[in-house]
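TICKET: design request
STATUS: open
ATTACHED STRUCTURE:
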């Protein structure tokens, strides 16, 4: 059976913008966040406190945070790679953070310049530090299905890492299909393995990139398995800068269209959201790849 409501976790300002080479002004990013909130978004990842040498687009994290003043019911999250990033995030008033690790050695090296084991060790004090400040930590796992260099990923490996993140205190776990290769049966197998490893299904989120056009089908499989939180980017923005051949996140519009069609509540107003994506596309200079955003714009 399907849930009656789903939490959309909007990653457009972070995952969506991080690989855009033309720098988006801080004021535009702040306006993007405000518009997303007025469209009904209540979980929003706004930026990351990573090395500005690695992600120049998000080097303005402090200034952006200073411009944001979301309502109390907005869960505003920032991505953090290490203790230095945690310090910056806390100083900027972060209410929740997200850490990120990979199932594969190649991607751990390319994305964090370390090994899988070291990435987990590095995450531990970050999660503990956030917890000591009374804020939650989302744990992202990249390459949960396949990796461009290492191929198919064993669901058991994802389950081990998810259990380790949950054990160190992550309050939710986002399972990333970084390169969009998952298919629904594979999603079910990974979810079954992660839940069997003791991670509660209500703490799991699905993070599907739409490279092979499977993201909505994958969400549907995850919904049936009991997952109620999904990561999407307005207009389908984004790709991972360190994983070749990737395209954007599942578009928020595409997911909202499907969920509303299924009678599942999201709290999101599709027209306001599509206006926001269109407005943002004007700022980044290329049109939205979202089928729903395109159809609603033409209608
Ligand atoms: P490194 O080069 O090994 O580390 O990078 P380092 O300690 O030598 O640091 C390099 C420079 O950055 C130094 O500056 C540090 O001080 C500085 P320098 O001495 O050369 O002037 N530095 C920092 N500056 C500001 N804030 C910090 C910070 N840390 C170091 N927090 C490091 C290691 C982890 C820093 C680097 O690899 C990094 O920043 N990686 C982030 C990469 C990233 O953001 N990737 C995209 C996000 S993950 C993603 O998109 C996947 C996801 O969506 C899920 C999915 O789809 O799978 C979440
Ligand atoms: Mg991603």
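STATUS: resolved
RESOLUTION: sequence designed for all positions
ATTACHED SEQUENCE:
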């Amino acid at each position: 059976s399907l849930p009656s409501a789903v939490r959309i976790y909007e990653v457009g300002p972070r995952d969506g913008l991080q690989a855009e080479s033309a720098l988006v002004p801080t004021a535009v990013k702040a306006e993007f966040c405000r518009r997303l909130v007025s469209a009904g978004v209540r979980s929003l990842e706004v930026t990351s406190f990573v090395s500005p040498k690695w992600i120049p687009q998000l080097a303005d994290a402090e200034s952006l945070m200073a411009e944001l003043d979301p309502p109390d019911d907005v869960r505003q999250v920032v991505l953090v790679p290490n203790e230095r990033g945690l310090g910056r995030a806390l100083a900027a008033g972060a209410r929740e953070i997200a850490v990120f690790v990979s199932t594969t050695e190649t991607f751990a090296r390319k994305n964090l310049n370390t090994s899988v084991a070291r990435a987990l060790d590095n995450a531990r004090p970050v999660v503990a530090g956030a917890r000591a400040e009374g804020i939650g930590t989302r744990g992202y796992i990249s390459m949960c299905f396949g990796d461009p260099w290492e191929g198919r990923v064993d669901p058991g490996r994802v389950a081990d890492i998810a259990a380790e993140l949950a054990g160190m205190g992550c309050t939710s776990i986002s399972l990333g299909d970084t390169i969009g290769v998952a298919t629904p049966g594979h999603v079910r197998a990974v979810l079954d393995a992660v839940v069997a490893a003791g991670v509660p299904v209500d703490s799991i989120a699905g993070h599907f990139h739409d490279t092979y056009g499977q993201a909505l089908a994958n969400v549907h499989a995850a919904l049936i398995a009991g997952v109620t939180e999904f990561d999407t980017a307005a207009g389908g923005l984004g790709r991972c800068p360190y994983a070749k051949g990737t395209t954007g996140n599942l578009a928020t519009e595409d997911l909202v269209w499907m969920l509303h069609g299924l009678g599942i509540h999201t709290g999101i107003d599709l027209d306001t959201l599509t206006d926001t994506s269109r407005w943002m596309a004007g700022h980044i200079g290329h049109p939205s790849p979202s089928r729903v955003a395109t159809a609603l714009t033409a209608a």
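CLOSING REMARK: The chain has twelve helices and ten strands. The pocket of 3-hydroxy-3-methylglutaryl-coenzyme A (ligand 1) is lined by residues 15, 18, 48-55, 81-82, 84-85, 88, 100, 111-113, 140, 142, 176, 178, 207, 240 (CB under 6 Å).
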